[in-house]
Amino acid sequence: MVDPQSFDPRQVMIRPGFELQFKRDAYLQGVQLHHHDFYEVYFLLSGDVTYTIESHLYHVMPGNLLLINPRELHQVCIRPEMSAYERYTLWVDLQLLKKLSTDRTDLGRCFDPSRPNYGNLLKLKSEERQMIRSLFEALWREYNSGEYGSDLLQESLLSQLLVAVNRMAEQDSEHFEASTRSSRMVATAIAYVNEHYGESLSLDLLAEQCYVSKYHLSHEFNRQVGTSVHRYILKKRLLNARQLMRQGVPPSHVYSRCGFGDYAGFYRAFRAEYGVGPREYIASIRFPDALEG
After folding, report:
1. I want to staple 135 with a disulfide (CB 3.0 to 4.6 A). Which of 12, 32, 100, 161 is the partner?
2. What is the pLDDT of residue 21?
């Protein structure tokens, strides 16, 4: 069995298809609110963890599963003094999900927010926890083995794991542990940004929508979400810009659809956030090795 890794701040995939991480940390510095271009399955083994996903706060217990889709901004907060923070984190690219799916079985269904009873946190029964842990352990062994046939076994085990997760997500809503939703005010502000990110937005406008002062909204938003209203709006716009570019929309059309006043402002914000310009990002999608070497 390969030993667990320590924390890596990297939030991009460097391996095609999927990545599996098994990590243990005694201490973890603050992780910023972020998003991915891929789907994430997170299985907590030990630790005292709170996860913010959009307007929801989840207290994650060992044996719980988190499901996060590419459009959801999220952030983890741990209490390392309680116990070591140990977890499996699975990242899966959309194209691989499509490849492994069939007309009858969509393995991405569990990540779809429009699905009835959708939630991020799956609370598993004892036998389900054991099955999921066994699948993660088997996949981790093959992921690191390099032996004959390991590539085939990895895809087989990954399919088994995703089928199991989808079956659990399709069952009664009792599997989904209740979240502590941010205050109605903050949830209303986030919902408005998610619906109107392509339009002109400001703290004053959101405060009007929430019927509170901008000072109160700003303070509570920072406290509950962990970032400022302005920063959240920017991250949501950039998140959607990346999604559009992955769908083939050119950067010259993306910026206005995502609420940026001009291309120059969009370019500066994109490069500051991701370290590359929009066209370099597109090249890295089409040619994964384009930014290496």
Report:
1. 161
2. 94
